[in-house]
Design goal:
two-stranded antiparallel ribbon, MFS transporter, peptide transport, Growth Hormone, Chain: A, transport, Dipep/tripep_permease, transmembrane helix
Length: 511
């Protein structure tokens, strides 16, 4: 829908999306950084239950954008759906603001957040694509900045909301501390929406076909009813782990069946690319099992077994709140991304750039080293607590692996999947990532600490046993990735010789 000679510059249009995306990520990560700890410390959940509830929520959060993109394209319009998603997210965080310890209320609030994220995420990214439609150079630069918005918003909120919880809790009561911190996430969305209101004219010419006219009432009613169904189904899944497991495992089987059916039924020239996409998708699923540890086992590990003081030469520099360690992921990605981009460009100029499959293998090496770092820290632990610097370097290695594996996920789909099935396959990819998020929570439960264990000396070997096992699994993934390199080279060559029309370039702004 982008028109010729738009009334405002691309930069102003992009700034509007950039800012609302920054505030949306501020709200989401501010909520995520506290959620598992909130369920354990405030609602009295067992660690195993809190891990699984958040794992199911993360799975739903990744799955619903496939529906939101369809709604934006066909029913409400890209711009209108993005805005609706931001409003729904604001309501979801506001529900967490309400000072109640009712678990059902939490499930409903998370269901609202699942819906809001599904409406917002795909359409915000699509608006950026539409702003720079046809300009490959500018769209790459735009998504680089867009990705920075994700990490700026998430870093600030992951540092801020734990501090707000502690400060308000200390002065006005623990319950008010938790809910005020969640309320700040809602305030972030309010600020984003206010800013959007004043800048809305910059996007008046950008969107999909339904954005051009007022949507038919039947479309609006249909989306509202469908949204209420998604909230209700999400709440039901979150409060019943048997249903959650059935849904997740059924989705995993369905994705494998779809891949198998497509590989069997497509033309011979398209088969090599789909097989390559399947191999790399499975490797990506393994990565997100590691990724889910950040908000589950690693978060709880920081609560029990990490010295929160950052010291140098015997002097304390500063102290962190346990949840704030999760911000290291975003901080390291901001530091490492430009270095890797420079390396890719330098290697590319000399014709020595690594293939995607090789980057996946290197990514798993880094992830394995990161988890071994926590086990290494246990050898120098004092009274059952490791130095905070081990967390810094562990997160650094893990984040390097994230950039090499997760950051290439959607690029891999674009490279190997035929254009005519690109949208469907990207939706399947996100569902697969959601499945792996839940599986990551299941893995985290191998280090779930019983409520009667409070001594760090007892919990330390339980956590480090899991992290060392994950390190060995990372080595196993590396070996498999290296073993697959000859096959991937052959599949890539066959795919290139077939000259299959690729999906237009896509970007994973969340890495």
């Amino acid at each position: 829908m982008a028109i010729q000679n738009p009334p405002v510059s691309q930069t102003k249009s992009f700034s509007t999306v950039f800012l609302i995306e920054m505030w949306e990520r501020f709200g989401f990560y501010g909520m995520q950084v506290l959620m598992v700890t909130y369920m354990v410390k405030k609602l009295g959940f067992a660690e195993s239950d809190s891990n699984l509830v958040w794992g199911a929520a993360a799975a739903l959060i990744y799955a619903t954008p496939a529906i939101g993109g369809w709604i934006g394209d066909k029913f409400l319009g890209t711009r209108r759906t993005m805005l609706s998603g931001a409003v729904v997210l604001m309501i979801g965080y506001a529900l967490l603001w309400v000072p109640t310890d009712n678990a059902l209320f939490l499930y409903v609030a998370l269901g609202v957040i699942v819906l809001g994220n599904g409406l917002f995420k795909p359409n915000a990214g699509n608006l950026v694509r539409k702003i720079y439609e046809g300009d490959a150079v500018k769209i790459d630069s735009a998504f680089t900045i867009y990705y920075m918005a994700v990490n700026v918003g998430s870093t600030i909120s992951m540092l801020l909301t734990p501090w707000i919880r502690d400060y308000v809790g200390e002065h006005y009561g623990d319950a008010l501390g938790w809910h005020t911190a969640f309320g700040v996430c809602s305030i972030g969305l309010i600020l984003g929406l206010v800013n959007y209101y004043f800048m809305r004219h910059t996007l008046a010419h950008i969107g999909s076909v339904p954005d051009e006219t007022r949507p038919p009432m039947k479309n609006v009613v249909g989306v509202i009813v469908g949204g209420l169904v998604i909230i209700g189904v999400s709440a039901a899944i979150l409060q019943n782990q048997t249903i959650a497991k059935m849904c997740v495992y059924a989705a995993g089987v369905l994705i494998l069946f779809i891949f198998a059916h497509l590989i069997r039924s497509v033309e011979q020239s398209e088969r090599a690319g789909l097989i390559a996409a399947l191999v790399l998708t499975i490797q990506t699923i393994f990565f997100f099992i590691f990724y889910q540890q950040m908000s589950t086992s690693l978060n709880l590990f920081a609560q029990r077994n990490v010295d929160l003081s950052f010291g140098l030469f015997g002097f304390e520099i500063f102290r962190w709140i346990p949840e704030q360690f999760q911000s290291l992921n975003a901080i390291w990605i901001v530091i490492l991304s430009p270095i890797l981009v420079w390396m890719y460009n330098a290697l590319g100029k000399h014709g020595k750039d690594f293939p995607v499959a090789a980057k996946f293998a290197l990514g798993f090496v880094a992830v394995a080293a990161g988890f071994f770092m926590y086990g290494l820290g246990a050898h120098t632990a004092v009274d059952g607590k490791i130095s905070s610097w081990y967390m810094v370097w562990g997160y650094g290695l893990y984040s390097l692996g994230e950039i090499l594996v997760s950051g290439l996920g959607l690029a891999m789909i674009a490279r190997y999947v035929p254009a005519r099935m690109g949208g469907f396959m990207m939706g399947a990819y996100y569902v697969a990532v959601g499945v792996s998020q839940y599986l990551g929570s299941v893995v985290a439960n191998y280090a779930a600490i019983p409520s009667d264990i409070t001594d760090p000396l007892q919990s330390l070997p339980i956590y480090t046993s899991l992290f060392n096992k994950l390190g060995f699994v990372g080595i196993g993934c590396t070996v498999l990735a290296v073993a697959m390199l000859p096959l991937m080279r052959k599949l890539s060559l066959d795919h290139a010789l077939a000259d299959v029309q690729p999906v237009p370039p896509v970007h994973n702004e969340d890495l």
